[in-house]
Specification:
By secondary structure, the chain is an alpha+beta fold. Helix content is about 65%, strand content about 10%. The chain has a domain at about 5-25 and about 45-135. Keywords: Coiled coil.
Length: about 270
Amino acid sequence: LVYCPCWDPWNLGPRKLIETPRPPRKTSPVKSKLTPPPPASKKQNYAQLITKSVIAPKLALYLIFHLEAQEIINVSPGYRFVRNREQICVTLGDEMSARKKHSESENMDKVRTSRTAIITDLEEQISELTAIIEQMNRAHRSAQKLLANEMDLRCAEMQKNFESKRRELEETHAAQLSELEKNYKAALKAEKLAAQDKLEDMGKEYKYLKNMFHIYQDSIYDGMEKWSEKKAEWEKEWEKILLQQSEYRKFRLFDDRCTKKLALSLVST
């Protein structure tokens, strides 16, 4: 019996399994239902199995593997083991065949006598397997329950962490918002004061410019009045000049007429 703890996660310990001998093929061609077929090899990439039968004088079975060691071992009469770097050779002689026939007859007797024991042992194994399955189910349910409880605890913890982080973020956001509002109000107040000072300066400047404009306007009005007075004086002088010119022209015409009359009178005398 080979027991490995890695195959027994429930710590049940080793269980005794009875090996059921197989009857010879000559007497019973049908395979026994009690004996399970040998398991097939899962991986055959690393090895090659070659079987050769020799008629006389010996029956040979060759198993060839690729190895590096080299060794010759006589295990028992009729059973020789040869191993070298390239292959493994197993030779089975007539002694092994005679022993095999004798063992087959003994196995038939054992099969006939131990059938009931095998059945009872199989029933015990089935009951043990049933108990193992039930224990596995219980372990699965308990593990599922533990996982569910752990998941609930983790969810509650995550929810608690989320709420605490959310509360911290809200507090931080509120503090930052209040600080921003405070800074904005201070900046707005400073801008209002600066704008008010600037407005007062601009009002003073406007008043000064307005006074200057009124002074300039008064000076322009004075200049316009003086200009109108000068214009009136110039017009009067111009009228005087025109009147003098017209009188001078009249005097010249009268003088010319008088001169002509005088000349005519002189000529006629």
